[in-house]
Amino acid sequence: MRYGGVGARLGHGICSPRAVLPAVRTPTRSRTGRSGTRPRSTLGGVEYLLAGQPSELERLELQARVWEPAGARLLGELGDGQGLRALDVGCGCMGWLRILSRYVGEAGSVTGTDIAPELLDHARQLVSDEALENVTVLHDDLFNSRLETGTFDLVHARFQIAPLGRMSEQVHVYRRLLAPGGVLVLEDPDTGSWGYSPEAPALSRLIGAVLDAFRVGGGDFDAGRHEYGLLVAAGLDPQIRADVVALSPGHPYLRLPIQFAQSLRPRLLELISAVDLDSLLATCEEELQDPARIGLTFTLVQTWARFP
Q1: What is the pLDDT of residue 296?
Q2: Kind plus residue range of the DSSP H or E element containing 97
Q3: N or C end of the chain, less CB within 10 A?
Q4: Distance (Å, rounded) from C-alpha 216 to C-alpha 225?
């Protein structure tokens, strides 16, 4: 089967699709009922690329549910986690909080951090709704972290390098937070597999624009392909695995390029006119109406290593 789009242009080769994802519920909008202007989220004094858009909450909740099975598989490879102290950096509204809670058990603890107050509100609601009694959610800036040195046995960071960059600086922070013998898990995308069948020219063009917006903002949407080398350069002995999800017709994650465009609209308008962007989005919506449209996600690259 041939997939058009970014996957066809860049090639793949990291892994094969593992499985078709079970049905994922469509996320709901904010339950907080807040109105007015939300505070902008910044990391290390720099505005976070995707912060402050209502659509970002929906994308993050869907993202967490789509990739949760891949996270659970990786934790299974790490062995027994009972009693460990785990940190989920940039947990957003869900992240790995649920699977880490199960992994460390009643004797362990999980800390989730983020910089966006509205996402932390939703994460706290999740913790309450699902009675995750070993989970605490905190506001913390990765680049000005107030967390104590050597506090955690496992540090997980998903989609932090792709939007933020500063790869070596991030690894330095994670090293500081890990206790001796602790494990760092990085998850970031590689766009080699991302595409649609039948081919979808407008969606492919929109994906390309999203990648450009990440680069302009200092990020790299293909960060996943660089993280093994990053950890080797840090003197570690990393391991690597990857997942791709096959998306059946009508799956909500087929809309990911449009969701990104909504969150990144101010950045995209630096690269394309509002008229052209709105026209492109309208054509993308038309392409997604094809009842036979299927797709593959980007590749989620998971790289992990134990620190001495």
Answers
A1: 98
A2: helix 97-104
A3: N
A4: 19
Asked if the model's pLDDT at residue 4 lies above 50, the reply is no
Of 306, 171, 179, 296, nearest to 226 (Cα)? 171
Tell me how far apart the alpha carbons of residues 119 and 267 are, in angstroms, rounded to a whole number: 21
Q: Name all domains of the chain by residue range, CATH numbers in brackets.
A: 6-21+43-306 (3.40.50.150)
Residue 130, token pair as written in the block: 């699902």
| pTM as predicted | 0.83
Which tops the pLDDT comparison, 192 or 6?
A: 192
Q: At what angle are helices 54-78 and 97-104 packed, to 10 degrees?
A: 30
Average pLDDT, integer, range 241-258: 97
Q: Which two structure tokens, joined as six digits, stand for 19?
A: 């499985």
The alpha carbon torsion through 22, 26, 27, 28 (nearest 10 deg) reads: -150
- 83-119 confidence digits (pLDDT tens): 999 999 999 999 999 999 999 999 999 999 999 999 9
Bridging pattern class, strands 239-243 and 294-296 = unpaired
Question: What is the per-residue pLDDT for 60?
Answer: 87
CB atoms within 10 A of CB 258: 19
Beta bridge partners of 175: none
Cβ atoms within 10 A of the Cβ of 30, count? 15
* Cα–Cα distance for residue pair 117/110, rounded to 1 Å: 19
Percentage of residues of the chain with pLDDT beyond 90? 79
First to last CA, the chain: 45
Rounded Cα–Cα distance for residues 148 and 152 (Å)? 9
Q: Which residues pair with 20 in a beta bridge?
A: 246
Rounded (5°) CA angle 200-162-87: 125
Quote the pLDDT of residue 213: 95
30, 126 contact by CB (below 8 A): no
